[in-house]
Design brief:
- The protein is an alpha+beta fold.
- The protein has one domain.
- It is built from nine helices and 13 strands.
- A six-stranded mixed β-sheet has the order 5-4-3-8-13-12, with helices on both faces.
- The N and C termini lie far apart (72 Å).
Length: 315
């Protein structure tokens, strides 16, 4: 670079760098894409098999002891929420305060498959735990994620919802699989995550079709308050053949929930389609993201109108 008086002459390389920065400036702006909601999906150590009551029970027990490559066990899978509004970044997720209640219900109180409907003492995962856990998941690729660029007004709405959820103490209940948080029933981890998408107007039919699991649990396998019966887990494990009810005519109990493993699988397949350029229709413009070994799908949903109205409603 040459300086003569007040005149500053730039070299060719400096001029090139200047024009590159100028061209990229709209994308490097601090406000560009700074309002986002991300759901992180963590699969169980080994697949949770919903093919029959027996296979579900066996896989759930196996995941209590299966080796994990890093991070927390998450024996039934897990969902974390990451919310970035401007310069504010918040992580959240709901879980039980421990496994003792569930083990007591199964082995001492005879709940059988009634454990999937039972509420437990709950808590928010701490910010520090989530960041550390996700860092381990990114190293192994056990997690993946969907991220949505959203409007500033939608981001503000979700921030208010998170505060209200905590203020009302709903996070202190880790609810059964059928619970719906926006009906004031508290939630499990996946329903909690999906409540953010619902309040943001992002609960697309694509997700309804591919992220949910529905079964009818036979009444004979449900113990606890729902039936007043005691069901030993050994009876479920020894049942051959073992089948779900086809409908509700035999007095069974429906279970309908957002399935973390289906969420993870859908994201994995969607990412593969983005890599290969498959002609696939997404709810919004989509692109591929990577965080170390974890893959994600980024949706541009900034044009989606911010829903209005209260967060919670009564039945």
């Amino acid at each position: 670079m040459i300086c003569t008086g007040k005149l500053k002459v730039f070299s060719i390389n400096e001029m090139r760098a200047f024009f590159v920065i100028l061209l990229l400036s709209p994308f490097l702006s601090p406000r560009a894409y700074s309002d986002q909601i991300t759901l992180h999906f963590i699969k169980a150590p080994t697949p949770t098999r919903w093919t029959s009551p027996r296979s579900l029970t066996l896989s759930a027990l196996r995941n209590q002891v299966a080796k994990v490559p890093g991070g927390a066990r998450h024996s039934i899978g897990h969902v974390f929420v990451e919310l970035q509004c401007g310069n504010s970044l918040t992580y959240s997720g709901v879980t039980s305060t421990g496994n003792s209640e569930e083990r007591r219900a199964i082995f001492l109180e005879g709940y059988g498959m009634g454990v999937v409907f039972k509420n437990y003492r709950g808590k928010f995962d701490s910010q520090e735990f989530i960041k550390k856990d996700l860092a381990a998941m990114f190293e192994t690729g056990r997690s993946n994620f969907v991220r949505f660029n959203i409007s500033t007004t939608t981001c503000s709405r979700l921030t208010e919802y998170l505060s209200e959820y905590e203020r009302l103490g709903y996070h202190k209940i880790y609810a059964g699989l059928n619970a719906r948080p926006l009906l004031r029933q508290s939630a499990g981890c996946s329903a909690y995550g999906m409540s953010f998408l619902e309040l943001a107007g992002l609960q697309a039919p694509e997700f309804e079709e591919n992220w949910r699991t529905y079964r009818v649990v036979p009444r004979k396998w449900v113990g606890g308050p729902l039936t007043g019966r005691r069901v030993k887990i050994l009876k479920i494990l020894s049942a051959i053949p073992s089948r779900w009810d086809q409908d509700l005519s035999r007095g069974g109990f429906p279970v309908d929930f957002w399935d973390p493993e289906k969420m993870h699988l859908w994201t994995e397949l969607a990412a593969q389609d983005l890599i290969t350029g498959a002609n696939r229709k997404f709810p919004w413009p989509a692109s591929l993201l990577r965080i170390k070994k974890s893959t994600g799908v980024l949706f541009d949903a900034r044009a989606v109108p911010t829903p209005e109205g209260p967060f919670f409603r009564d039945l």
